[in-house]
Amino acid sequence: MIISKSAVLFNTQGFKATSLSDITKATGFTKGAIYRHFTDKEDLEESAFLYMAEQMKVKFREKIKGGKNAPEKLLAISKFFQTYLLKPIIEGGCPILNTGVETDDTKPQLNKHVRILVDTLQSSVEHILQKGITYKQIREDVPIEKFASVFLATLEGGVLLCKIRNNPKDLIWVIEDLEEKIKHISI
Predict the structure, then answer these.
(1) Would you tell me how many other CB atoms lie within 10 Å of the CB of residue 160?
(2) For residues 43 and 121, is the Cβ–Cβ distance under 8 A?
(3) pLDDT for 175
């Protein structure tokens, strides 16, 4: 309960801006009770991010399983990011963006976990592409690593623009563009 409530606070307010008082207020626990479970605030931050990452991976896998073939799985990932705006897994938006931007220069250990999550998601896309090539669903000349990296970067960029502009049109355009790219690489 401490982790899930803290995750929402960290994802909406940021790690630096969230105080231990905010956490005690949200959880109803005293500082002593929280420190009985976590050595310090950084330990709680790391646990909260790992919790958010796991929630994201579970939903990501669910969406992928819904596709019958590689192109459908790629489209499902796109739709996953689209629904993210309306119905985020963790209140506050994308933990990759929120945590990645906040920790890139300030919290190297936490940022390492963000990179691991991004690498995991990219590996999933690469695996889908490789299977698609093997089963003659995706063209064999597709540069797997490059396509997967640009695919995820495009989706995350679309999410970022939507958050900045408070308007879903950028992500809608991104997904439309990715749908065309998926059609182009499909057999």
Answers:
(1) 16
(2) no
(3) 94
Rounded to whole angstroms, how far apart are CA atoms 183 and 187? 8
- On whether the CB atoms of residues 171 and 85 are closer than 8 A, the answer is yes
Rounded mean pLDDT of 19-34? Answer: 96
Q: In this structure, is the dihedral angle defined by the CA atoms of residues 103, 108, 110 and 113, taken in order, positive or negative?
A: positive
Nearest in space to 171 (alpha carbons), one of 93, 57, 69, 59: 93
Q: Which of 64-73, 78-87, 125-134, 169-178 has the lowest mean pLDDT?
A: 78-87
How far apart are the C-alpha atoms of 30 and 33, rounded to whole Å? 5
Rounded Cα–Cα distance for residues 96 and 156 (Å): 8
Q: Locate tokens 């495009």: which residue?
A: 154
Residues 101, 37: contact at Cβ < 8 Å?
Answer: no
